[in-house]
Write a structure and sequence with these properties.
Layout (H helix, E strand, L loop, with lengths): L7 E4 L9 H10 L5 E6 L11 H10 L4 E6 L7 H6 L4 E5 L6 H10 L3 E6 L17 E5 L15 H13 L5 E5 L7 H7 L3 E4 L1 H4 L4 H16 L1
Parallel strand pairs: 1-8, 2-3, 3-4, 4-5, 5-6, 6-7, 7-8
The structure holds D-xylitol-5-phosphate and zinc ion.
The site of zinc ion has 6 residues, from strand 2.
Length: about 230
């Protein structure tokens, strides 16, 4: 049966020209992006270092679209408030980085933000079973986080399917997002498996025509939803 879930596209500024950040964001906004994905890396949880709250604030000033902030940090609880103040709409933390995950998710909501939980490719869906009532979004990594432009790992597809079943069975108001290696060739698989928010870095900002890139992703998504 074709799904009626709306598919949202979230270009990741990790692959944008950061010297022209505001123009890059306005370009994807005009081309129909739904959210802007912001990858925060600390050089410890992942082997790369990116941006902090000051850059998130600059992204906030450039757009009215929701800012989807992906925290790839050890001790993410230390950074929730600065990113909330910088204008994040959703703050997502990795289950692997949070010994007291429920507390961290509750803290995000206490600050009036949407709470997201992220699973690395090897992390089973069972690890978040008891926090599904505390989240607005589940993000399934389909690459090992740290870099754009990596190859999609199809082994995560059954995890998306299982999470989609849980969300639908209990009618949970939870978005199911996928991040890593999403392009027009992998989009039909992730949408068929149940994802309804697609993060795309190199397949949007790595292409000269961002409008055509987003249109190609939408066409690939509707081929899966029917
Ligand atoms: C990877 C980041 C992703 C990255 C995706 O650690 O979390 O958001 O930007 O890039 P692509 O779409 O190129 O795989
Ligand atoms: Zn990301």
């Amino acid at each position: 049966m074709p799904s009626l879930r709306p598919i949202r596209l979230a270009p990741s500024i990790l692959s944008a020209d950061l010297g022209r950040l505001a123009e890059e964001i306005r370009e994807v906004e005009a081309a129909g992006a739904d959210w802007v994905h912001v990858d925060v890396m600390d050089g410890r949880f992942v082997p790369n270092l990116t941006l902090g709250p000051v850059v998130a604030r600059a992204a906030r000033a450039a757009t009215a679209l929701p800012l989807d902030v992906h925290l790839m940090l050890v001790e993410p609880e230390r950074w929730i408030e600065p990113f909330a103040e910088a204008g994040a709409d959703t703050l997502s933390v990795h289950v692997e980085a949070c010994p007291h995950l429920q507390r961290t998710l509750a803290e995000i909501r206490r600050l009036g933000k949407r709470a997201g939980v992220v699973l690395n490719p090897h992390t089973p869906e069972e690890s978040i079973r008891y926090v599904l009532g505390d989240v607005d979004l589940v993000l399934v990594m389909s690459v090992n986080p740290g870099f754009g432009g990596q190859r999609f790992l199809p082994a995560v597809l059954p995890k998306l399917e299982r999470l989609r079943d849980w969300i639908d069975r209990d009618r949970l108001p939870v978005d199911l997002e996928v991040d890593g290696g999403v392009d027009p060739s992998t989009t039909p698989q992730v949408v068929a498996a149940g994802a309804d928010v697609l993060v795309a870095g190199s397949s949007v900002f790595g292409r000269p025509d961002r409008g055509a890139a987003l249109a190609a992703l939408r066409a690939a998504a509707s081929a899966a939803t029917g």
